[in-house]
């Protein structure tokens, strides 16, 4: 019998009144173990006789939120209270099931959405004494309002999340507003425990969160790092920017024109009309912008590959850069997905590319097309559908792009296409984590998109075995500290950043100061 079961049994056997049988001294002893230090105040609030309606537990990964929740659930159940668990996404709900060992549902399923509305509301509330909601940084104002309407007044709600992650995709900033209003009891966990300290992912995430640039090793410097158990790597590489590509194209064109001026042909008769001579523009001088003054034009002219061209225009190249091996950042992402990660972590590990943007050579659109062509190419007998410019095949990894209550599939749900019927124009998708099958009719199929690569925003609330995160200056508009922090903490076993350390430093330094126009904080303060 472990410590959790022991104390739960003691609580169940007690017959004294609630406030008396849960004395602070006993609770302090209970949470005094290393894995739940700092959670004592929360548990006291949760089990006091004069209970409050809502509480909030927040902190970064590795600080004991999950373990504290497990302790609390066992105590509440021992006290014969009905506990429900919920989360905004199916993956987050499944994670609660895995670590707590109790049923957990998405908020939409908990509230029983049917025929355009939630069945659970003020008139038909949830049957619950204590509701625990995880991943609350994803909660938008509308979903939170629907959830709270369905909670009976005698019940309690515990919101759990990490306020330093990206805010919700929908309207509002619920978690941050609840904290800053200072009207709801908030319990922040900050200590990283011994087991979590062994994870480089968690250590680097904490450094990034306080604005400190982490030093992340590269397998190009230390090849043995793949076997050493490191769970976070940085592969230095780069991609040409639009400005660099434009300059390279101008240099190439200039060299073509110069060659055309002096064709390597036998001397012709001076009195013959030169009808085969190419037309040359009047101005053939090449103006080199200041930022490209260092470039050796001859190197660009002689470059045989796009990597050679990029090396020719870059002023500085990192000593461990993949460019020296003829690999651009796009090539590195492809190698990681198809070869390197499966080689060292096994073919069954779930790999997810999460990138800051949809556009660009390392945006979701380009990456999905590239990975699909290699990982799931067209084959005779393999069914496929064309949806606009997208092609969907059997075996493709896909994501649902908006809430569809009729199908019971929600924005951000990820699955695999199992069947396509080209005559009926339908397809069947198996969704993670429970492998439930959903049939898509013709009108529903446009809600699917490839998900070999998704945006970091779409990855919120999910965890993956391995994540690949492109970080380049082409994403400068999106390079914020909370974006990289959120992306890094999506990885369970391995996180690989691909790009330039300059771009990572930009993100670590750049704190998102944009303010969402909400009124929840003011409403709570005037309650």
Instruction: Profile the largest sheet.
Output: 6 strands, parallel
Q: Which value, in Å, is the CA radius of gyration?
A: 28 Å
Distance from first to last alpha carbon: 45 Å
Approximately how much helix is present in the residues?
Answer: 25-40%
Overall mean confidence score, pLDDT: 84
The low-pLDDT segments are 1-38
Protein architecture, described:
The chain contains 20 helices and 20 strands. It has helices at about 5-15, 20, 25-30, 40-45, 65-80, 90-100, 105-110, 140-150, 175-180, 195, 200-210, 240-260, 295-300, 305-315, 330-345, 365-375, 455-460, 480-490, 500-510, 520-525; strands spanning about 55-60, 85, 105, 115, 115-120, 130-135, 155-160, 185-190, 230-235, 350-355, 385, 390-395, 395-400, 415-420, 425-430, 435-440, 450, 455, 465-470, 490-500. The strands form five sheets. It has a six-stranded parallel β-sheet with strand order 3-2-6-7-1-8, sandwiched between helices. The chain has a five-stranded parallel β-sheet with strand order 9-20-19-10-18, sandwiched between helices. Strands 16-15-14-13-17 form a five-stranded antiparallel β-sheet. Helix 11 (about 200-210) packs antiparallel against helix 18.
């Amino acid at each position: 019998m472990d410590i959790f079961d022991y104390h739960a049994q003691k609580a169940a056997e007690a017959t004294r009144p609630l406030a008396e049988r849960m004395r602070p001294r006993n609770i302090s002893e209970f949470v005094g173990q290393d894995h739940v230090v700092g959670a004592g105040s929360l548990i006291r609030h949760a089990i006091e006789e004069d209970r409050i309606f809502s509480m909030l537990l927040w902190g970064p990964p590795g600080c004991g939120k999950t373990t504290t929740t497990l302790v609390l659930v066992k105590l509440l159940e021992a006290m014969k209270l009905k506990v429900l668990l919920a989360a905004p996404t199916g993956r987050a709900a499944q994670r609660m099931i895995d670590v707590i060992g109790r049923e957990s549902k998405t908020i939409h399923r908990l509230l029983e959405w049917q025929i355009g509305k939630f069945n659970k509301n003020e008139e038909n509330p949830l049957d619950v004494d204590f509701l625990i909601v995880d991943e609350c940084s994803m909660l938008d104002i509308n979903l939170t309002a629907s959830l709270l309407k369905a909670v009976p007044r005698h019940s309690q709600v515990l919101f759990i999340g990490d306020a330093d992650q990206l805010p919700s995709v929908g309207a509002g900033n619920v978690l941050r507003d609840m904290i800053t209003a200072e009207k709801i009891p908030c319990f922040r966990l900050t200590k990283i425990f011994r087991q979590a300290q062994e994870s480089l992912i968690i250590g680097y995430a904490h450094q990034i969160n306080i604005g400190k640039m982490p030093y992340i090793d590269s397998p190009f410097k230390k090849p043995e790092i793949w076997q050493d158990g490191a769970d976070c790597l940085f592969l230095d590489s780069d991609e040409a920017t639009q400005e660099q590509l434009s300059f390279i194209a101008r240099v190439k064109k200039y060299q073509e024109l110069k060659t055309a001026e002096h064709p390597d042909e036998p001397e012709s008769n001076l009195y013959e009309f030169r009808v085969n001579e190419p037309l040359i523009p009047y101005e053939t001088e090449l103006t080199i912008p200041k930022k490209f003054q260092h470039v050796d034009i001859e190197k660009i002219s002689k470059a045989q590959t796009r990597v050679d061209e990029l090396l020719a225009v870059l002023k500085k190249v990192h000593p461990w850069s993949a460019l020296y091996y003829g690999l651009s950042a796009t090539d590195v992402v492809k190698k990681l997905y198809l070869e390197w990660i499966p080689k060292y972590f096994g073919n069954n590990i779930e790999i997810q590319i999460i990138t800051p943007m949809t556009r660009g050579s390392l945006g979701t659109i380009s990456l999905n097309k590239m990975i699909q062509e290699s990982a799931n190419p067209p084959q005779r007998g393999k069914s496929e559908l064309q949806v606009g410019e997208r092609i969907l095949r059997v075996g493709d990894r896909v994501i649902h792009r908006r809430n569809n209550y009729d199908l019971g599939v929600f924005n951000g749900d990820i699955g695999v296409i199992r069947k396509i019927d080209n005559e009926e124009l339908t397809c069947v998708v198996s969704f993670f984590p429970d492998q439930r099958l959903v049939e898509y009719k013709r009108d529903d199929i446009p809600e699917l998109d490839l998900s070999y690569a998704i945006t970091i925003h779409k990855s919120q609330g999910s965890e993956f075995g391995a994540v690949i995160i492109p970080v380049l200056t082409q994403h400068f508009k999106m390079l914020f500290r909370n974006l990289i922090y959120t992306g890094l903490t999506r990885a369970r076993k391995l996180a690989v950043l691909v790009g330039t350390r300059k771009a990572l430093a930009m993100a670590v330094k750049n704190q998102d100061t944009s303010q969402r126009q909400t009124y929840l904080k003011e409403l709570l303060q005037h309650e």
